[in-house]
Amino acid sequence: MAEPDTTYFESLCEQLYNPKTPEEGEQRLKEVTLNLLVRCFSYDFSGTSSDESGEDTATIQVPTSWRPLLEKDSFLPTFFKAYSEFEPPYSSKVMECLVQIASIRIALFTEPQRTKFIVAIMQGIRNIIINTQGLDDGDNYNGFCRFLSRFRATVPLNEMVQTPGYLDWIELIANFSFKAFQSWKFAPNTSSYVLSFWTRLVQSMTYYQQLGEEAIEKLANLTIGIVQAYVSTALEAVPIRIEEGLDDPLENEDALIESLNHLGQIAHKRYQACSTALIELFNSITDQYQELINTVGINMSSEFKEALEVIETKYAWVVYIMASFIGNRAAFMTSDNIDKIDSEITTKVLQLVDFQQSLLNQNGSTFMNEKLDLAVIFFFQMFKKSYMSESSGRDIYSILSEVFGISHQVTMLDVIMRKIISNLQHWADNETVIRRTLELFNDLNTGYGASKNLRKIEATTFILQNHMSTEIAFCQHEKQHDNRILYFQILCKLLFADDNITERAFYDFMEPFHRRIEALGSLDTVEAFQQESIKKAIRDIFTDLYGFMLPIQSRRHFTLFFDWFYNYYSSLLLRAVESWSPDPIVNTLLKFYVEYASNKNQRLGFDVSSPNGILIFRDASQIISMYHQQVLKQPVLRQDQIYDYRYKGIILCFDIMSKCLGGKYVNFGILWLYQDKSVNEAIDATLQLIQSIP
């Protein structure tokens, strides 16, 4: 394949170097030239970039024919000069070009040009920092931090270390990083780029062995300052964010966790020092908290509540950071010292959780803080990731055992489960906290050994026996529909973690469903089914049953469910479909039946003599036929209603038919042999539903 012609690119660069344009057209020419240069640098010459979302880690694959131009002595200095001389927004466009230049694959260059290229960029970075060129503009500042991150991602650490004046240069970067953290109000998105720079530096130190003792020591010591600067700045910003109503990073957990993962990796370079500093900050906040709590009996004023919010938000930050420290313990790190440090960190968090729980019991919702509880959930997730495996060392429980009597995984699981149950009780109307709590519960329940351990503890027994009691209050809230599905998925996996579960144990678990159905009373007429309270109750029952069925994989477990459901409750489903169709509420029932008729993992592999497959299909045929009859009677709908009232239900009917036809558990020949009309009725109804779609 021929190399791309570089004439166009060269002419753009020359235009940037020597603009010979009348003054009135100069600004427009700058804008056009810079936009075209950015597009040239960003072009996917190799045709391998399928996802632009990851562009901050991508290497630019420019053609080799560009090499002579890139290696010119004037190439990089001209871009740096343009950046220093142009006013915003043109300077930010030049910085965007520099970001792309820093991303060019370093293998393109040959020695000595490769070293010259690296030195030129490092010198340009140094000049920008020393002279604060353009850094009073937010876009420039953000772009420069991105430039640092890209440069570190592209250039190997050992080649950077070998350049003259590297130690002074990296100290300059560290000082800039401290100021970047403190500039959160001016440039709020820069921290992630700065942390990315230092993370890549720390990661490289683990596999480059020839960096020199002085460089290694310098870099390692700088990481302590980076961690301390980030943490202290985050805590100092808390009262300002609250007072001025500014955006809080704690409210964007996904982005926060990405940044904190970087911080955790950096901290592990000097883990003892970083952890000690963090624990000291935690203790300082605890002292402030205790002092404030001592005034609660006297004063519950607005000032008290504001001070409480500040302290609890600081706690949330520290707990998130502690979680990132523990969560970034590499699998190959088997140091007893690290485990003991993490044991001390975990002890601090559990002491806070215990204290919060006692305040909650005494004072109700006054001391409930969403951000802090989300931080605790994340901490437990990271603890599970790093320390709840068969190979985990016992040193993690050294201090925990002394303070709480927690000496192994099962007792730690019990502590976490008690927190999960507390959240399900007290955060019933909060979708986010309930979702995160259930995700933690699901993480703990993932894996054969994990489920076995969970079944051993008292808190799990409580939730299995009381899964629909008023104590698990979140199920009573309309907004928790999706969370209920996840909740019953988890309970199903937990229930069937016992390989030898008996029919009696299964029926005991399903008893609350029986009571809920019995509470509906006599439903003898269509009018009875169409009462709003009845519709909501039946919808919720089948939402929960849908969630319960989702994880079922084995034939034995599905047969237990089938025998319970078909013998007692399938008629309720059929009558509800008949009474409600085509109201959108019926879609919940259709969705349930799609899962019910699904033969995933051959779970519907009934015995040869079993009629169960035929029974499932005959009910499916009735459902499709009844829905079809009601849909065709429906008057013409408005365009904004047609999906919910018609198309969604039709799609679900198609899914039911597909599961039955492809499941290989229905002997259709028997139905035809005995002149059963269910097959023909289902096919006719399906075809007419297809024809009803314009």
Secondary structure: elements and pairs:
Blueprint: H1 7-17, H2 23-42, H3 67-70, H4 75-85, H5 90-102, H6 113-131, H7 138-154, H8 157-161, H9 166-182, H10 191-205, H11 213-244, H12 253-267, H13 271-293, H14 302-327, H15 336-363, H16 370-387, H17 398-404, H18 409-426, H19 431-444, H20 448-455, H21 458-465, H22 481-495, H23 503-518, H24 526-529, H25 532-549, H26 555-568, H27 570-580, H28 586-596, H29 612-633, H30 642-662, H31 668-673, H32 678-691
Helix pairs in contact: 1-2, 2-5, 4-5, 4-6, 5-7, 6-9, 7-10, 9-11, 10-11, 10-12, 11-13, 11-14, 12-14, 13-14, 13-15, 14-15, 14-16, 15-17, 16-19, 18-19, 18-21, 19-22, 22-25, 25-28, 27-29, 28-30, 29-30, 29-32, 30-32
Keywords summarizing the entry:
mainly alpha; TPR_XPO7/RBP17; ARM-type_fold; 694 residues; protein transport; transport
Question: Gist?
Answer:
The chain has 694 residues and is mostly helical. Helix content is 69%, strand content 0%.
Q: Can you walk through the features of this model?
A:
This protein is 69% helix and 0% strand. By secondary structure, the chain is mainly α. Among the domains are: 1-155, no CATH class; 511-691. Helix 15 (336-363) runs parallel beside helix 17. The two termini are 49 Å apart. One of its GO terms (biological process) is protein export from nucleus.
Tell me the number of helical segments per DSSP (H or I, 4 or more residues long): 32
Write down the overall mean pLDDT: 89
The N- and C-terminal alpha carbons lie at a distance of: 49 Å
The general outline is globular
User: Which parts are unreliable, with pLDDT below 50 for 5 consecutive residues or more?
Assistant: none
What is the CA-atom radius of gyration, in angstroms? 32 Å
Strand content: under 5%
Assembly form of the protein: single chain
Q: What's the helical proportion of residues?
A: 55-70%
- Largest sheet entry: none
SS elements, strand count: 0
Pairing-aware structural class of the strands and helices? Answer: mainly alpha
GO cellular component, one term: cytoplasm
GO biological process, one term: protein export from nucleus
Main location: cytoplasm
Protein name: Exportin-7/Ran-binding protein 17 TPR repeats domain-containing protein
